[in-house]
Amino acid sequence: MSAAPQIPAAADLTVGDVVAERTVHLTRDSLVRYAGASGDFNPIHYRDDVAAEVGLPGVLAHGMLTMGLAVETIVPWVGDVGRILEYGVRFTRPVVVDADTGADLAIVAKIAAVEDGVARIDLTVTAGDTSVLGKVQVRVHLDG
Prior knowledge:
By secondary structure, the chain is α+β, with helices and mostly antiparallel strands. It has four helices and five strands; from the N terminus they run βααααββββ.
């Protein structure tokens, strides 16, 4: 069993440091699995015809799935999720998941501020060239 990663001390962090990044590939299967886990079976998340009927550009990933994948990006860096004090986002654009090609969600986490043993991590979350979440901020307890 390996030890949990050691989160850096506040003094070792610099505003602008990238602490985590990854790309997650979403497929329609991903959406169905998430629907089963969450209980959100709204057909806009798996049926093109229903999405089109309500004026959407295609089948959409669940907002909470997108939000969860974003914050999960920093979990290996944080080590203990109990260090996460606060997490918030604004949903700005939908993630359209194509039936054939899916969608790639790119997440980059950077240090935005460090004060009194707490770091604010800002996440940039994009699908293609489109920012899909705005004001994505995670406050993390660093010391002790």
